[in-house]
Known about the structure:
By secondary structure, the chain is of the alpha+beta class. Helix content is 31%, strand content 32%. The model is unreliable at 1-19 (pLDDT under 50).
Amino acid sequence: LLLRLFLLLTIGTSTLVAQSTEGQWDTYIAEYENGFPGSTTVRMDLIKKAPISQLPFVLVTGLVYGTSRADGFPENETFEVLHKVGDQLEALIAKETESILVGSFMHKGERLEYFYIQDQD
């Protein structure tokens, strides 16, 4: 149990460090379906400002990844790739429309990214 908790906290901390440097980010680990853990990262400094009238739409996008870990989290190498792709995704969306990355969710081989965006097209 202590090893499992340590691993979950380590993953959560890594998620927090890899997120955008803007804002205040918090990471939460919880147990979901069939005992699988999930990691939620949220930009806390926007809680009292949301909804943001200039960014009225939410875009949810993400990746599916393979893992050999029983808990469904990625191995270190895959974790690094997910963050690089996430950074590239954030830059791509910013080229197309005004946007803010506001959170992410990782669970059972899937990582979702949540953005507030200006345009829906």
